[in-house]
Design a protein that fits this description.
about 120 residues, about 60% strand, 6-stranded mixed sheet, single chain, Nuclear Transport Factor 2, Chain: A
Length: about 120
């Protein structure tokens, strides 16, 4: 799934390399009972052995204390084609619009490239 030196940037922090990405993921979900992610309207542009992608995501989750939550965000991806012919994430960056209660009452987050 990830290139050996891949980087995942999410919620103000990042991990580089497969082990660091896995540790970062485990830390992020440690306070979550479950999460369902819907990826929508993906666009992938291929240029030789590299590609770029953009995805809109909506995640429904339940925090460890029982409250519900919603994450509405965009992923911007860079992909690399490995020697084995498999595409992998070279870099994946999350730009969150809303991470909070399901009624969307949280103050919107200002993301890079937004007009807000």
């Amino acid at each position: 799934m990830w290139a050996e030196d891949g980087e995942w940037v999410v919620l103000g922090s990042s991990g580089r390399g497969r082990d660091a990405i896995l540790a970062h993921y485990r830390k992020l979900v440690s306070g979550v009972r479950w999460v369902i992610q819907h990826a929508n309207n993906g666009i992938v542009e291929v240029d030789g052995d590299a590609a770029r992608g953009r995805w809109l995501i909506v995640e429904y989750l339940q925090w460890g204390h029982g409250a519900g939550g919603v994450n509405i965000a965009r992923y911007r991806d860079d992909y690399a084609l490995g020697a084995d012919g498999q595409w992998r994430y070279a870099r994946r960056e999350l730009h969150a619009t809303h991470l909070g209660s399901p009624d969307l009452s949280a103050v919107p987050r200002k993301s890079e490239g937004s007009a807000a």
